[in-house]
Amino acid sequence: CGTLGAAVSASLLYGLDATKIAHAIGIAASMGAGVIEANRTGGSVKRIHCGWAAHSGIIASSMAREGITGPPTIFEGRFGFFNAYLDGNYDQHALLDELGTRWELLRTAYKPYPTNHFTHPGIDAALALRADGLTADDIEEIELGVAASVIRTIGEPLEEKQRPRTGYHAKFSGPYTIAAALIGGGGLGLYLEDFADGVWDSPDRLKLACKVKVVADERATEIFPNAFAAVLRVRTKSGARLVKRVDASRGSTAAPLSREEILVKFRLNASRLLPPRDVEDLVNVSELKTSGDLATFFRLIHQG
Fold it and tell me: Which residues of 79-100 are buried (b: 16+ CB within 10 A; e: fewer)?
């Protein structure tokens, strides 16, 4: 889907007419990919999926601009996108109604944590319990309740999710991210250092992760996919039982990040490559505090 969208965007920037935009979409459909086995077992290739979709979309648009053509029935045709990926089931009205006036970009969720999005409501709940005074030493066991359909991504096989193979694998683990939120926590609650070698595999984090089991929660299942929800049930060593429920993950339209929180994330990430002055110049460009021309923007990021 990202490849098709990127092809349309690039075509508009190239100034292509409707016929060539249609060809670009048809070409892009032969370039789409994104098998997500890495979500389950680890592997860093998942990180390039969005970038590769953008790359493929630009290439498809360039080809259309140069005269290469695509099939006119790329979406609805017998071997088109909808039949290939959706068994022919699609909602035409959802796709076309209010086209050009309803902007899905406005519903974009900002991820505060560098982990699989399905883990975020659980992290939110763990951070809230930690803020209330819960410590790792207090915990006897934890039950993480999530939407039934996300368990296979962040909760199965449970033994592997409790003891991930790599730091990247840990980003797709409900048990590990709960443990990390309760013990570590950089950035906006969890950050890249929580998944660095020597940190993600530390005995205290893995010990706590092994106390976390993942189950289906009825309420979270009903809410999904309109929002990512979770409930955390904790039994302490003293016998106390704590419950924290999150019905919409932090950063979503229902629980948006503040502008300052978004800038915290930007500054942390940008400063990994750029000097502080350039980071602040980029912030100023983004906020239109300066002339904000694209030449300045590209000069700054190119220096990195």
Answer: ebbbeeeeeeeeeeeeeeeeee
For the segment 263-286, what is each residue's pLDDT rounded down to a tens digit?
Answer: 999 999 999 988 998 899 888 876
Per-residue confidence (pLDDT) for residue 45, from 0 to 100: 87
Q: Which residues contact 146 (CB under 8 A, 6 or more apart)?
A: 118, 121, 122, 154, 155, 174, 214, 215, 216, 217, 220, 229, 230
Beta bridge partners of 245: 231
Specify the amino acid at residue 1: C
Residue 249 tokens, joined? 């993950």
Instruction: Say how many C-beta atoms besides its own lie within 10 A of residue 275's C-beta.
Output: 12
Q: Nearest 5°: phi and psi at 142?
A: -135, 135
Q: Which two three-digit tokens encode residue 258?
A: 């503040």
Alpha carbon distance 170, 58 (integer Å): 32
Q: What are phi and psi of 209, to 5 degrees?
A: -60, -35
189: Cβ–Cβ under 8 A, 6 or more apart, which residues? 112, 113, 123, 124, 127, 181, 250
